[in-house]
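Hi everyone,

Forwarding the result from last night's run.
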Amino acid sequence: MDTSSDERPRGGPKSAHVNYYFELNGSGLVAFSPGILGVDGFAKLDSGTALSRTFDTGFFQFSVLLGFNALTHRVEILPDQTVFSALPPPGQDKAGPSGAAGEVKLYAGHDTASAETDLRIERGHVVAWWQSLNPVENPAAGQLVTILAAWAPVSLRPADNAPEGVQMVYFDWNNLWLKIQVDERTGWIKGTSSFRAIGLAMGNAPR
């Protein structure tokens, strides 16, 4: 169920859509808690249906999955998500050449304590997203930077300026990682300078 209200006092919090989910059993409808702001889709898993929440970081998007705990009737962030689906910014889902160049640190994992190596990104390389990989889009020569996955600390917490008990999925912008593959080298990068070095441009402000 999706509900919203435009009735608010002058200067009060803005209206927002709140999503509530229920299980039908012999005694009627049982609500899952909490109500969630900002859910944007569903995903089919072996364990059942999950909610999908997509974040726009400005450089790229990534999607987090939320599940339904039938024992506690809670909406929870699915455990063991060591990576998130990486998605291109709106309208930028095709591979293409970039004018960027620079040095980036490539880490073995999304942790600055993991093994690292320096990687040189050359001007004119092509950036491709794993969802749009197509041999026709690959360059005849030069580097191909493939975006494979993303990761960031994600949590459910009470939403700002929302009805009591309503929660929202948040992510930590300051600890955002992106998994890439350059030629045959795969690893994790972080930081705006690294994102720009592989040809990603800042689009919308992070939200």
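The chain is about 5% helix and 45% strand.

Cheers,
N.
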